[in-house]
Amino acid sequence: MASLSTQVLVIGGGATGLGIAWDAALRGLKVVLIEQFDLAQGTSGRYHGLLHSGGRYVVSDPQSALDCAHENQILRNIAPTTIENTGGLFIATPADPLDYSDRWHAACQKLGVPADELSLSSLNEREPLLNPRIARAFELQDAALDSFDLAHLLKDNIEAAGGQVLLRHRLDRLRREGERTTGAEISDLITGRRFNLDAEVVVNAAGPWAAGVARLARVDLPLSLGKGTMVAMATRIVDTVVNRLKPPSDGDIIVPVGTVCVLGTTDTPVESPDALEIQPWEIDLLIAEGDFMIPGLQSARALRAWAGIRPLYQPGPAQGETRSLPRAHALLDHKEADGVDGLVSIIGGKLTTFRLMAEETVDLICNKLEQEATCTTATTPLAPAASTTLFTLPERLERQSESVSRSDNDHLICECELVNQTQLERAILSDERPSLDDLRRDLRLGMGPCQGAFCAYRAAGIASRIKPSIVSVSFLESFLNERLKGLSPLAWDGGLRQIDFMRRIYLELLGDEHRTNLT
Ligand SMILES: Cc1cc2nc3c(=O)[nH]c(=O)nc-3n(C[C@H](O)[C@H](O)[C@H](O)COP(=O)(O)OP(=O)(O)OC[C@H]3O[C@@H](n4cnc5c(N)ncnc54)[C@H](O)[C@@H]3O)c2cc1C
Questions:
Q1: Domain residue extents for the chain
Q2: What gap in Å lies between CA 117 and CA 504, rounded to an integer?
Q3: What is the pLDDT of residues 426-451, one digit of tens each?
């Protein structure tokens, strides 16, 4: 087996791991990050899309509220291209406890989280579909944050600062000599090649998989896992993030994201980081609770459902539910916690606070390596690399209109999300072996109302021309099955028609013998 070496090895290519690798590279440390799948394929790509203002936690978890409010401002400065400044509303619907709004507003004022009360007439003007019986409304600095764009930016900036990001590389074994970890055995999942990587510090940023990673070093990491389910509605029913004025609970938020808006979320304890199956009651509950905010929501078209897993560090006895556990992050030096040097774990927190979590982690690493280097991520803008295809929807629309007026019509491949041929070709070329699902995360291809019914076969056709070796029937089938998995919990009415329509297109295209493969 080949052997390589680094100072810092980061396990996990979600927002936390990428933030750590970026911070470490900027401080001049030699850093390698490995990710078993694609960028943000774990919880970071399965989240709600909210850049927190802090308002959700002012009563239940003031430290998290302060961290979110602080990081919200920093991210707006360093990663503006990933954020849509929707603003946020906190509303008291007839189903919410009215006395909570006073307590909540007092907590915002005490913590310095800006929250301005709105008149009900201006609320109605701003979001006409909201419940007309809302008693109070406040405006906060919530926004929508595209985690896929953020992950790409971080990767580009890690590499520009001299760090390495190895996608589709899995940690198989942590090497331990006596009471310290000294490196890892890693598999390249594309080539099958295995190699050793010596590392002075290994950072476990594996999200819900973190307990499994710690076990590889024979360290017990007590985690509680909570599954949250979300439902995307087929249109942007609101243009502002809407939260209910009640203690955080199931079904209390709607976030406009791209062309859709996302209802969230539930929180149920699960045993495994892969327990992503969605229960019918979760869908019913999210839609019923959403209806308190937007009357009539129950009859609007729901597009797809998905779930993400939240890991919470819980050293005490296991509790039955995860909603009430603090959402703040935990940073563990396993030398202090378990007598094993060279291993650090960073657990929990929020995507909004990934930079702060990274700063604290790299401070600890510098301390362990006895290196003095100051964190600069709060003031270093994440510059898009020339190859990065970051576009908000209005920018995509503008580019498309420009291309039509220049009459060099760059063909639209995905009409819902306005992905054109140039963007698609560039994304295919920039990855050694992309799947259609990777291209979806890169470009939002297939994420809109048709869910890939029209764009998946076009994208497969273009990929087969550029990289024939990566395209086979399963290239299409595995993408379609992933889409169908998210559509099937909503298989009634419009959703059912959508599934039937999509299956018919692809059975026509691939042949009836593929009927059983399209599950
Ligand atoms: C339902 C839900 C909704 C949420 N909504 C919001 C929100 O709106 N706003 C917000 O700020 N936060 C939100 N959060 C929290 C936020 O999503 C997480 O804090 C954040 O995404 C965690 O990122 P991470 O990098 O720590 O973990 P992950 O994104 O899960 O990354 C861990 C990575 O480690 C990799 N990995 C694991 N094992 C190995 C191995 N052996 N080898 C190589 N790689 C490995 C995985 O493949 C994975 O990609 C939400 C969380 C949930 C569950």
A1: 2-43+148-222+326-379, 83-144+224-313, 393-517
A2: 51
A3: 999 988 889 999 999 888 899 888 89
